[in-house]
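Late entry, evening session. Most of the bench is empty. Finally got around to the prediction I had been postponing all week. Sequence below, unchanged from the version circulated by S.P.
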Amino acid sequence: MTDPLLCIMGPTAAGKTDTAIALAEACNAELISVDSALVYRGLEIGAAQPDYPHHLVDIRDPLEIYTAADFVNDALETIQRVRSRGKVPIFVGGTMMYFKALLEGLSEMPASDPEIRAAIEKEALEQGWPEMHRQLHAVDAVTAGSLHPNHSQRISRALEVYRQTGVNMSDWRARSEGQKRAAICVALAPAERRILHERIERRFDDMLANGFLEEVAALYQRGDLHVDLPAIRAVGYRQIWSHLSQECSLETARDKGVAATRQLAKRQITWLRGWSGLHWLDSGAKNVQEQVKGQFRNYL
């Protein structure tokens, strides 16, 4: 683990995958997905699953919860396997929480307690998630301040950690200092935000034309999935799910899906701007693949 990790980051629809594939084919490398939707089976069209092999894709059922800690454990095991074959692991994706956990460290928080979690969910059903958010703010203002009052999964987990241990999640995270891993990180994004917005809209329409509605319908018809699961909360899936639940028309779901994807891209770019030592490249440049290769050249 002494060699730096090679990472290709960027907002959704920026063109990361094509560049990473070209790099892997040219440089004896294997790709490791950093995408919180692609870990789930059945999320292919809406998550833009690539045809080229990536590790950590299709490894969980949508009913399961896959955490940043799970990702770090799986990623470290994958790194060892890839390097044992004499190849270079390259991380590519846009789930910034996963990158942060891998590169900056993740404190050893306690495992989930089903009884405490069930009690929290019961309270939320009776009082609503905004009230649970207020409870969290009283014991952990830092974590609560980073969460939307209706972000049920993360509010639940933060309350669970505090009720289980008496230590809030912010303090647990502070204990992760010293676990940082060396990395060379490249961020790909179009030079103009307008171009990214156009790509997002075009890709969403292409996904609908290629069977995205039918993909979400297959998940909906299972009967055991619901909107509070991370898989179904994924951008695009949540909006199409609302249409299938007869909450809105398909046209409205499409427009909301495009808007939500643009908001996701905005959050990703904001996060990346705060990442120190990041090499920014224009994903629309003709020689972008050579530029990325140049950043990684000494380690490929």
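Two things to note before I forget:
The chain has 14 helices and six strands.
The two ends are 15 Å apart (CA to CA).
Will write this up properly tomorrow.
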